[in-house]
Design a protein that fits this description.
This protein is α+β, with helices and mostly antiparallel strands. Helices cover 59% and strands 15% of the residues. The protein contains 17 helices and 13 strands. It has a three-stranded antiparallel beta sheet, covered by helices on one side. Strand 12 (450-456) and strand 13 (461-467) form a beta hairpin.
Length: 489
């Protein structure tokens, strides 16, 4: 009921549960699936069907030819499927934490590398102390220093032209006195005298400023070297960080500071994850070791019971055992095996896997069942295992409410077929057993018989299934032996 509820299938509230599975296939090919007349998806129908019905054939490949399925039979006998599911969840959580640690460590290495690089770059830029406009100022100063000797000579030439004997400035000073005399006599000349005085003052200012400019000029090779070095440093930094621009380099400098401050320290998160991983590993290990012990005990009991069932199925001196395998991993779970400590790889379903080994003849070493068993032996092994599972822990409880055996008796006959029929009848006391068979020894053991017939009306074939009466069942089972040799009542 719980499984049906999880699949959103409505169920009755009483103690009994009537379950009807139906699939409709239209002539157009469209299909619909129903559970208790409730429309469901096809995958839901298959999932519910697997819960209540087990279909097995002679090949038994779905169970006995796959190692994981064989281990599942041992787990079913041990009746610890819930523990297996819990172990899978523990493993998934543990694996998630381990991956998170790996990612965080990898990220931390990346962050540490980035932090180290940013710190180096910031120290370089902090030490440089770039300023907007500095490059232009230094460029101008470099030009002056490069041309200092020529500039001094040019200034000297200007000053000599203004101040020397017979120079314009001296002549103009004499003319200024004349302007002043005229202005004192004729008031209309005042404007002319003022214009001349203004020009004289400006010319004097030119002389003075050129003189000051000249006095500030020096032939300074050391300073020129310093300017060149600073300009070289600026060029290197703006090329490295700013794409050729001092302004962009200064902006990059600010962004580096912001980025460095944003890089979080992952030490606390890593410590938390490592503590969680240790706890999860302990939980997984505890349950995995408990399951391991239960598996070993269950495998021993299951194979012993199966051997007895195979004796009933005409393989009297068989050997049937389950051999466990595991993978060594130096980072795995520690177990003690024959007084030796081993490190086993942790997996979703536990620390071990394994498969059934079988020998039908005395003196032959058991070999993997899937490789050495004939078709008939495989069919009997499958039936023997189901019989053993059906009576686990001494209780007549079925693995599933319904089991369908499709041609499971192929390859056997005679007394073996009779034994198989009886074994199937025994299984039917605790669950519904449906058998598709061509053997009278098997069919004769059934409580109810259904006959499958193919009929043709000339236009199309029809397959029908009908229930047989006791007399009809007797006639049909006799036909299975030899219709010509045995008279049919």
């Amino acid at each position: 009921k719980q499984s049906l509820s999880e699949l959103d299938v409505e169920i009755s509230r009483d103690k009994t549960l009537a379950l009807t599975l139906r699939r409709e296939i239209a002539a157009s090919g469209r299909t619909r699936a129903f559970v208790n007349d409730q429309l469901v998806r096809l995958d839901q129908l298959a999932e519910i069907g697997a819960l209540v019905c087990q279909i097995q054939g002679q090949s038994a490949s779905l169970i006995l030819r796959h190692e994981t399925r064989q281990l599942a039979l041992v787990d079913s006998f041990a009746a610890h499927e819930n523990d297996i599911e819990k172990l899978s969840r523990l493993f998934d959580n543990w694996e998630t934490t381990r991956l998170a640690i790996v990612r965080l460590k990898g990220n931390r290495e990346r962050v540490d590398s980035e932090r180290e690089l940013l710190s180096f770059q910031l120290k370089e830029l902090d030490r440089a102390r770039l300023a907007a406009g500095e490059e232009d100022e230094l460029g101008a100063e470099k030009k002056r220093l490069d041309a200092a000797e020529r500039l001094i000579a040019d200034c000297e030439q200007i000053l000599s032209a203004l101040e020397g004997d017979g120079a314009p400035l001296e002549t103009l000073l004499s003319a200024h006195q004349v302007f002043e005399r005229i202005k004192a006599v004729d008031a209309t000349f005042v404007e002319h005298a003022e214009l001349f005085s203004s020009a004289l003052i400006q010319l004097e200012e030119v002389r003075r400023s050129v003189s000051e400019y000249q006095s500030g000029l020096h032939i300074d090779d050391e300073r020129l070297y310093q300017v060149n070095e600073r300009l070289s440093e600026i060029y290197k930094l703006k090329t490295k960080y700013g794409g050729g621009s001092v302004t962009a380099t200064i902006e990059a400098h600010k962004q580096m500071h912001t980025r460095l401050e944003s890089l979080s320290d992952t030490s606390e998160e890593l410590a938390r994850l490592e503590k969680l991983e240790t706890s999860q590993a302990a939980d997984y290990t505890e349950l995995a070791l408990r399951i391991r012990t239960a598996r070993f005990a269950a495998a021993k009991k299951l194979t012993a019971l199966t051997e007895k069932q195979l004796v009933d199925l005409a393989i009297p001196q068989n050997m049937f055992e389950f051999r466990f395998t595991w993978e060594i991993d130096h980072l795995g779970v520690t177990v003690t095996e024959q007084k030796r400590e081993l490190k086993l790889k942790a997996q979703r379903t536990g620390l071990e896997s394994g498969s059934f080994y079988f020998s039908a003849n005395p003196g032959e070493e058991p070999k993997p069942l899937a490789r050495v068993a004939s078709g008939g032996e495989m069919a009997r092994a499958l039936l023997a295992l189901n019989a053993a599972l059906n009576g686990r822990r001494g209780k007549k409880t079925s693995v599933q409410p319904t089991a369908v055996y499709d041609e499971v008796d192929s390859g056997v006959g005679g007394a073996t077929a009779t034994a198989m029929g009886k074994k199937l009848k025994t299984l039917a006391t605790s669950s519904q057993v449906i058998v598709v068979t061509h053997l009278r020894q098997v069919a004769s053991q059934a409580d109810h018989h259904l006959l499958v017939e193919k009929q043709s009306d000339g236009a199309r074939n029809r397959v029908t299934v009908r229930t047989l009466s006791e007399a009809e069942a007797k006639r049909e089972t006799l036909k299975m032996v030899d219709l010509g040799a045995i008279p049919v009542p």
